[in-house]
Design goal:
alpha/beta, seven-stranded mixed sheet, three-stranded antiparallel sheet, 13 helices
Length: 395
């Protein structure tokens, strides 16, 4: 199936992309205000963005970074993941969910998913944990992914992981604004850290950016230092007496993962429209659910509020061989479909680490059937009708 992701988009009709940001006059004004201020970096707007995100999800602390990938990395570092340790995640995700372990010198392993939802399979995790416990090779971290913005039941993971000393990190890159029984994703009620993405195709955007939320003050402080070269200016944590008001200490090997004031200003402005965006996304998903024929829309669990980052549909199992043809026909119709995701363990780099095709059959089956349809708040009813008509016609 090499090359099918590069199927050309229609030039005859306006293309409806699978995702698109909305930037308003208020957003532009917020960024312009920072441009005219004294600080483009390390001012007051980044902390304001951190507080706004933490307050929105009910967490004690927020740590902003230049991307969700960076936030995942420093979360793992703050949890002391390193050589000799392992991190588990799911194959159906973007590669960053696994790469964060390799950045720390740790190893990666995967837990297969439910083939109809793409979400981590709880039975597979329980079996794998029991085997790892017997082998004395338990992971230090489990990264659970809220695929498509559908909230995972992290409380069930906690029941399995906490007694074994496994830290849960939520990759909620898709899920700002999502809730499970009124508990917001990001509250960290059952995890140690949650990471959000503010990439342009996500629910709200800061152009590029990520925020890690936590209720652990020590973790928050460590992540804050690690995203700034491992440097602290807090004299309460100095290892020796300060030389003066200019004094700082590098106490760890960190990185320059800081978010700029410009990005934070855009993020703060966009966050004010989060509920409107999530509501419109749900309306679009509902229209798909009612009108699509010949495929199945991947749905959230009952009792949850999805942020609906993606509208993933699954082709019938007996039609999966037609996926390339379906994808290409929709692209030619100007429907900017995409695929989420190529299983991480099948990527060439991970094959080089010893993984192989067939290791996680449910993940591979999900990938063979999955196509992501356009879904973003500024889609018009006409756009939506075009998408549904094209999908039903092709199928």
């Amino acid at each position: 199936m090499v090359g099918w992701l590069r199927a050309p988009l229609s030039r005859a009709r306006t293309v409806i992309p699978y995702g698109r940001q909305e930037v308003t006059d208020d957003d532009c004004a917020a960024v312009l205000e920072v441009l005219k201020s004294d600080y483009l970096t390390q001012g007051e707007v980044v902390p304001a963005f951190e507080r706004a995100v933490a307050d929105r999800v009910g967490a004690s602390f927020g740590v902003a970074c230049n991307s969700a990938t960076s936030a995942l990395h420093i979360a793992c570092m703050a949890l002391d993941l390193g050589p000799g340790d392992s991190l588990w995640t799911v194959p159906v995700s973007f590669v960053a969910s696994a790469n964060c372990a390799l950045y720390c010198g740790a190893t990666v392993d995967f837990v297969d998913v439910d083939e109809n939802s793409g979400a981590l399979c709880l039975a597979s995790l329980e079996s794998k944990l029991l085997q790892a416990e017997n082998d004395r090779k338990l992971p230090k971290i489990l990264v659970v992914v809220h695929l498509a913005g559908h909230p995972y039941n992290v409380a069930k993971l906690r029941a399995l992981c906490e007694p074994r000393g496994v830290h849960i990190v939520e990759d909620a890159s898709h899920a700002i604004g999502a809730e499970r029984y009124s508990d917001a994703v990001g509250s960290c009620s059952d995890s140690v850290v949650t990471v959000f993405s503010f990439h342009p195709v996500k629910i709200v955007t800061s152009a590029e950016g990520g925020v890690a939320t936590t209720n652990d003050e020590v973790l928050a402080r460590r992540m804050g230092e690690l995203r700034t070269h491992g440097v602290t200016k807090d004299n309460a944590h100095f290892s020796k007496p300060s030389h003066g008001p200019w004094y700082y200490e590098q106490q760890a090997l960190g990185f320059n993962y800081r978010l700029s004031e410009l990005h934070a200003a855009l993020g703060v402005s966009q966050l004010s429209r989060l509920d409107n965006y999530v509501g419109r996304r749900a309306e679009i998903a509902g229209y798909y659910l009612q009108n699509l024929k010949g495929c199945t829309l991947v749905l959230p669990d009952e009792g949850t509020r999805s942020s609906w980052h993606l509208a993933i549909v699954l082709l019938p199992a007996d039609r999966k061989s037609a996926k390339q043809s379906v994808f290409e026909k929709l692209r030619r119709e100007g429907i900017g479909v995409n695929v989420h995701y190529i299983p991480i363990h099948t990527q060439p780099y991970y094959l080089g680490l010893g993984f192989k095709q067939g290791d996680y059959p449910n993940s591979e089956s999900f990938y063979e059937r999955a196509i992501s349809l356009p879904l973003y708040p500024t889609m018009t009813d006409c756009d939506l009708d075009r998408c549904v008509t094209a999908v039903n016609s092709v199928l």
